[in-house]
Design brief:
Elements: E1 3-13, E2 19-29, E3 32-37, H1 44-52, E4 59-64, E5 67-68, H2 74-80, E6 82-85, H3 89-93, H4 100-104, E7 114-115, E8 119-120, H5 122-135, H6 152-164, E9 170-174, H7 182-197, E10 201-205, H8 209-215, E11 218-223, E12 226-232, H9 238-245
Parallel strand pairs: 3-10, 3-11, 6-9, 9-10
Antiparallel strand pairs: 1-2, 1-4, 4-5, 7-8, 11-12
Helix pairs in contact: 6-7
Length: 258
């Protein structure tokens, strides 16, 4: 499959101005879920933000289907086909004081749901919201319910419905099942698999190695902002990935025979 996302020599600084990403080279292909593993604080957040336009790249390039998007804004990337499931849904995923409908149309209110490029087309927005609530099984009294009154799982379904409704070419999913119950977790995982089947490239950032092994074909490991390696999940063990996460590039030791 052809690469959808290509990252070359990507470096970026942390909020404190220190090197957070150090020359990352990465490809995610069409119809592929690639896992990204690492102990929290080793550059995963900065990489996600650099890919989605929330953090400026100091060096290197990010391309989407061969088109350079390194300097594109978050909105430009959305329009080009980049979807983002943020690791902190309360900070970047939903606005708790907004209704389900307002959260579902977020990012599209100026074009997709705009009438004469000025006023919001409430009929279109309402129809879309009802459709998303049905298709993604969002449990809420109605589209006008404030998102703060929804369960965590239903809040995450709102995020997924909004992002996936745009038929993205690339999904950057950061900790998509963190804090969710078993039912919501399985639902989100199925949605990621369905997007893959539709040809989307998915970068799955997760601290849950079992989740990565269940969903991803390959796993890339970050340690202190460097890519320690990319290995097929079918050939790797949890112990090997754990060693890479700890900064060791040597193969995992075999168990001593008894």
């Amino acid at each position: 499959q052809k690469p959808v996302l290509t990252v070359k020599g990507l470096t970026a600084l942390s909020d404190r101005g220190l090197p957070a990403l150090k020359g990352i080279d990465l490809e995610v292909r069409s119809q592929e879920i690639m896992g990204l593993a690492g102990v929290e604080g080793n550059g995963q957040t900065e990489l996600v933000e650099a890919l989605t336009g929330l953090r400026e790249a100091a060096e290197g390039t990010v391309t989407l289907d061969g088109e350079d998007i390194t300097r594109a804004t978050p909105l430009e990337r959305i329009r080009m086909g980049v979807a983002h499931i943020p690791e902190d849904r309360y900070k970047r995923g939903v606005i708790l004081d907004f209704s389900v409908m307002e959260n579902l149309i977020m990012g599209g209110q100026r074009d997709r749901f705009a009438r004469n490029s000025v006023a919001l087309d409430f009929r279109e927005a309402s129809s879309f919201s009802n459709e998303m609530m049905r298709d993604y099984q969002i449990q809420a009294p109605g589209k006008d319910t404030h998102v703060m009154y929804l369960s965590g799982g239903n809040q995450q379904r709102v995020v997924v419905a909004r992002e996936f409704s745009r038929s993205p070419r690339l999904v950057v999913a950061a900790q998509p099942t963190r804090g969710l119950d078993v039912g919501a977790t399985e639902y989100i995982r199925r949605q990621l698999l369905e997007r893959r089947e539709k040809g989307t490239a998915v970068l799955l950032v997760s601290e849950d190695l079992e989740e990565i092994f269940e969903l991803a074909v390959r796993v890339a490991v970050l340690f202190e902002g460097r890519l320690m390696g990319i290995v097929p999940t079918g050939e790797a063990t949890l112990e090997q990935i754990g060693l890479l996460m700890a900064g060791s590039s040597s193969p995992a030791p075999r168990e001593a025979s008894r």
